[in-house]
Amino acid sequence: MTERQDVVTLTIDGVEVSAPKGMTVLEAAKRAGVVIPHYCYHPGLPVAGVCRMCLVHVENTPKLQIACAIPVADGMVVNPYHDEAVEARRGVLEFLLINHPLDCPICDQAGECELQNYVFREGRARTRYSPTYAKRFNPVEDFGGDILYVPNRCILCTRCVQFMEHVADDPVLNVSDRGDRAFIGIHPGEQLEHAWSGNVVDLCPVGSLISKDFLHKARAWELDKAPGVCTGCSQGCNVVLETLHNTVVRLRPRTNLEVNRFFMCDHGRLDYRWLNRGDRIEAPLVRQDGDLAAVDWHHALERAADIVKGSGGPIVVLASARASNEALFLATRVAGERFVGAFRVERVDGEEPLPGVPNLALRSERAPNVRGATELGYTETFDAAVTALADAAAVIVVDEPLDTVSNAALAKVPSVIYMGTTLPEPARVAQVVLPITNVAEEDGTFVNRDGRVQRYLQAKTGPGMARPAWWVLGELLVELGRGEPLATAGEAFEMLAGAVRAFDGISYDGLGYLGAVLGTAAKAEATA
Amino acid sequence: MAITVKVMKRPEHEVSYLRATLKGLALTFSHLLRPSVTMQYPEQTATDDWTLSPRWRGTHRMLTDEQGRSKCVACGLCPQICPANCIKLVPGEDEQGNRYPLIYEIDEFRCVFCGYCQEVCPEEAIHVGVHYENAEYERGRFVYDLERLCAQTHPVSTLWDPSDPKGQ
Ligand code: SF4
Ligand code: SF4
Ligand code: SF4
Ligand code: SF4
Ligand code: FES
Predict the structure, then answer these.
(1) What is the pLDDT, as a whole number, of residue B38?
(2) pLDDT of residue A524
(3) What pLDDT does residue A171 have?
(4) Residue B128 belongs to domain spanning
(5) In terms of domains, do A400 and A500 share one?
(6) Chain centroid to CA A495: how far?
(7) CA-atom Rg of chain A in angstroms
(8) How distant, in Å, are the alpha carbons of A71, A326, A393, A469 from that of A474?
């Protein structure tokens, strides 16, 4: 690559780094792997420059500078750890702590709090204030939605105000009063009701804005985390599933600049309880003397294979748009020539966009894999398919909750193979019931509405003998004599990518954590 | 072949055990005249006749506030630091929305009495105690619940000597 005119070279903490003109020193430092402490700066928000936490020493300038606001310049020598800068930041932290309640033991942010972190790193070990100094006190306020405001903990970085004003375009928050009495106010009569307002909890660097849903549920350090994809709608926001003792307790956005940047909507954020359902099927069941009886996997798969082999006529796959691509694909393989696939998706009126981020909205189709199901040959003709079930030789249900299906509908079909997490009433007529894991309990991929194939990873263990749907269908293929056993979701995906044109050129490993868009890999090859 | 035994003739004072026996007895009886150092436990106990170190680390005690409620706010630090993993804590929320321990149990059998829980507690709630009489009729009784921990009255450990905190 040739050196371009608009690239400058500077030194930050002894590290030489090139950065495009116009970039701020703080961002350039990130590139160089140097962390400059900061509060009001956030990559998803406009620069506010109010917290003074990012003070750094720049050679040949008379005063310390705020790294989040000054642009890089050629030959600049920045020293974030110059004695003067460290001393200034220590002063900033001391001011922040004057009225801070130090209630870390009961604060939900403890363990992931930037005030704790920076004070631990560069703050004073002891206060210089008298132990009898009465700290400013304001009661906790309900900001509406899922959000509580604890003013005593606020460090007035204004990230929340910036977000509501510039990103959500719903400026209901403000800085009220002034000086050391300042606090974050909400406009009279207003609430944090925007569909994306929950993000202020993540943005708040301290425990000042907290989630009512997560309140007192867990300590930050007890949580296990796994990267996932939100199942709330077809946008496919990248998330982190946080679990405590094998229970999902919180979803948070995971940065993906191409999809959701740093955000996720409240609908998706709070839609996790179904992942922890207790009424799960824990063992394969087959019909024996009229009743469903628990058997081992081998017997259940044998029975399922007999059904598939024995039936002449269409095999209808009723799939959920929450099922992984791997499961949907393998189901088409199991049905073979006689495959007829249909899915259903809940659609609501209107979208809830986040104005500050292009192409990001809570979408009207409320399932994560509508595009994947479509690419794999399923059609959104669920109701028609159910009405036409009388002609089917067999039905395979893949993770579809059957809420809209009457008890009698499936009874008409000679054979039903039901793969699901729970056993709803209409499914009780099945000949074989195969317990599968939910999206938090398996690896797999979804395709979002823009054709981005995205991986999600297992966050908790499934109940009993439940197995990922791709494993179950893979074993069924083996039982039918039409495939090799699949050990991982990756192997299932490779099989899919090799067989379905739309997935050409996409590899499981190549997806990484950010995904790849259908069709682009092939195009890139063609132009290369 | 017959075995031949060589018989040695030793002087009389070397083979007689009488001398050694008398010497031993003299030592034994001399103890009768010395002051006794044995403590007559359980007639004598640490409460009246002798003292335990104030830094002794024994079974736990949870301190309470003026209203008699435990001072614990269920911050989760002690189960985190405990090397024996013997503290069970489930946080809850009371009527005023305050965080408090819904379940707080210490398995004293698994505890190694390191005192880390006391050291880490930001509320000065859980303490190891200056206490040593722990016998029970059942194993299960060694899991102390919150009520029992709060009901303990023995003195709590100072962990370190305030006049010499670094132990020099
Ligand atoms: S509530 Fe949080 S995000 Fe908002 S100004 Fe205070 S510290 Fe910053
Ligand atoms: S916009 Fe859709 S994918 Fe994103 S968080 Fe909301 S529900 Fe989930
Ligand atoms: S004394 Fe040590 S081992 Fe015992 S409960 Fe406390 S931290 Fe755990
Ligand atoms: S460290 Fe103290 S306040 Fe925290 S949970 Fe343990 S006893 Fe309770
Ligand atoms: S991060 Fe630079 S002033 Fe706040």
Answers:
(1) 82
(2) 52
(3) 96
(4) 58-151
(5) yes
(6) 26
(7) 27
(8) 55, 10, 21, 8
Number of domains into which chain B is organized: 1
The answer as to whether A34 is a domain residue is yes
Q: How far apart are CA A306 and CA A150, in angstroms?
A: 62
Residue B103: which CATH number? 3.30.70.3270
**Distance, CA of B134 to CA of B58 (rounded, Å):** 9
The pLDDT assigned to A528 comes to: 46
State the average pLDDT for chain A.
94
Cβ–ligand 3 distance for B114 under 6 Å, the answer yes
Give CA separation, A292 vs A306, A395, A434, in Å. 17, 17, 11
CA-wise closest residue to A106 among A159, A53, A155, A148: A148
- Round to whole Å and give the CA distance between B127 and B124: 7
Per-residue pLDDT band at A81 (split at 50, 70, 90): very high
Q: ipTM value of the model?
A: 0.80
- Predicted TM-score (pTM) of this structure: 0.89
Task: State both tokens at A209.
Answer: 């804005």
Task: Tell me whether residue A267 is in a domain.
Answer: no
Pocket test for ligand 1, best of A97, A99, A157, A186 (most atoms within 8 A of CB): A157
CATH at residue A176: 3.30.70.20
Q: Which residues of B touch A148 (CB under 8 A)?
A: none
Tokens of A415: 């054979």
Residue A5 has pLDDT above 70, yes or no: no
Task: For A245-269, give the secondary structure using H, E and C.
Answer: CCEEEEEEECCECCCCECCCCHHHH
State the residue range of the domain holding A474.
285-527
Q: What is the CATH number of the domain that holds A64?
A: 3.10.20.740
**Helix and strand element counts for chain A (H, E):** 15, 25
What are the pLDDT digits (tens) for B46-79? 766 678 888 999 999 999 999 999 999 999 999 9
Q: Is B84 in the pocket of ligand 3 (CB under 6 A)?
A: yes
Task: Answer whether residue B17 is part of any domain.
Answer: no
